[in-house]
Amino acid sequence: MSDSLSAFNTHIGRICDLNHSAALLEWDQETYMPEGSAASRARQISTLREMSHELLTSDHTGELLGKLESHGLAPGSVEADHVRVVRKDYQRATKIPATLIARLAETAALSRRAWMQARSQNEFHIFAPHLTKIIDLCREKAESLGYKTEIYDPLLDEFEPGMATAHIRSIFEHLRERLVPIVQQFASETAPNDAFLHAHFPRDKQWEFGLDVVKDFGYDMNTGRQDYSAHPFSTTFSISDVRITTRIDENFFNPGFFGTLHESGHGMYEQGISPELERTLLADGTSLGMHESQSRLWENLIGRSAEFWSHYFPKAQTTFPGALSGIDEDEFYRGVNKVSPSLIRVEADELTYNLHIMLRFELESALLEDTIKVVDLPAAWNDRMETYIGIRPETDSDGVLQDIHWSLGAFGYFPTYTLGNLISTQLYNQAAKDIPDLAGQIGEGSFTELREWLRLNIHKHGRRKSAKEIINETTNSKLVIESWIHYIEKKYEKVYGR
Length: 498
Ligand code: ZN
Hints:
Blueprint: H1 2-31, H2 38-57, H3 59-71, H4 78-95, H5 98-121, H6 124-145, H7 153-159, H8 165-187, H9 203-217, E1 224-228, E2 234-238, E3 241-246, H10 253-271, H11 288-302, H12 306-319, H13 321-324, H14 329-336, H15 350-369, H16 377-388, H17 415-434, H18 438-443, H19 448-457, H20 467-475, H21 482-495
Parallel strand pairs: 1-3
Antiparallel strand pairs: 2-3
Bound molecules: zinc ion (ZN).
């Protein structure tokens, strides 16, 4: 058996090496690569990804899994967990025909280009035929993977393993009931002043300020680094090399600073995975929802809290004297938490963000179920925006064409953003129970205990535990929306001074 195990580890280790090498090329593509080499780089990445896919779906993987499963590894051991997770990945990967993967990749490349053109010209009809093809292929993919009740289930499972569409639907039904009236109420009140956030914030100072904060959080620069990119992201080449990127707008404080905190949360998750899982398929976040809970926790629950700014505002003021000299801490706190219904998801405040996601979930599941036609999509989008958020897009570029996800075939992805928000408050509340002085520690810029709590309860497990298991075991509760609603109500009463 030890022979089979070591053959298995070597085989899976090679898959990890290929995946991480492809990730490194992708990171370079987004940060330093000269634009002229886009075509050769795309080929190199696709070669590595194809090789990795071939290894994973090879008969050799199946044979090794069969041998190890029949030997009976000790339940709960790293080896047994690894075999279980590889079996799941193997089944998923072998169910989708190679020809379908190729057609999806090809269609997505064309569709992405059409989407970009449609968005820049505000012409939905340029994108529509491509979207129709993408939806057909996603349906085909769902059929290959198989499902019991809903066609959305197997697509959602790729991003949020074990989560059922019915559960997502009930979460959004409850959210809609509770959240829409709250949003309407705050939209009618006088918003806090945030004009000072649009003053001049020098690039280098922003870079330094953000990086100092994430170092305080515990993002380890010895096994990480930060670079510029047009769209911020985090990426992993091994547990000891986890990188983040940021972008900076010199005339707006929020995107660079909160983006940096956000990505550091993703980065710390990956840096905190137990080193014994290195070079296995267990060394990854357990779901996108859980991953997003980590980024949102640092960005919003910490980075937009009054305690946090009681410590960091004086430093912000000395760093950016031009922009912040006449502003006090309370005004600053209210400014970074201003609610303003926006057409654009990535610019949305904490309060309305989940409504943007709800709209996308409703539409994408309806498209897959064929209860809404592509041609009717723009109007359906605008109607929902008006009902949920209270504003109607004047152009499709600011409406249905704003996100890249559908053009790439990433159906089932959007709900993980909302799951991340919900999970983040539930975990944070538990951390505040387990660390009685947590608010005081944040007020002193001390995050070691919180970071360690997250590492022990969430990060170190990698994919050994599912998101559901982590939530249940850590909080003694299932996933609920109440913690988040309560957090939102309490916070915005404070921000709006009631
Ligand atoms: Zn994120």
